[in-house]
Amino acid sequence: MPQAPKESEESIAGLLTSAKTIAVVGLSSEMYRASYGVAEYLQSSGYRIIPVNPNETEVLGEKSYARLEDVPEKIDIVDIVRRSETVPEVVDGAIRVGARAVWMQEGVVNEAAAAKARDAGLFVMMDHCIAKELHKLRR
User: Where do the domains of the chain lie, and which CATH numbers do they carry?
Assistant: First the structure.
């Protein structure tokens, strides 16, 4: 199978600089979870964070939605912090809502879903922490 294209540092910087709203799919209100720390860092860095988790009502002071399709505003980046096998349905939702990018956190890999997102014109990052990439950019 051919290697999936790697996003350049310039394209990552461009995305993170231009994005304003990040939907975090799988965001938990449990402060010990990595997803919470990542979302908190993004929020403190000036991004609008939208939790997407049917098991939450509010996270980090923001209303949580059950699905991406329920979010009433434009989403720039869909950050996925769920198991790899759940990624295809999230990518389908990201395409339906017109997101610009799909970002799969460290340990989240789904080549078929990534290819589908790229084919639909979305920027795709896989198996990388968005907070770490933002931190590198800000150094």
Answer: 9-138 (3.40.50.720)
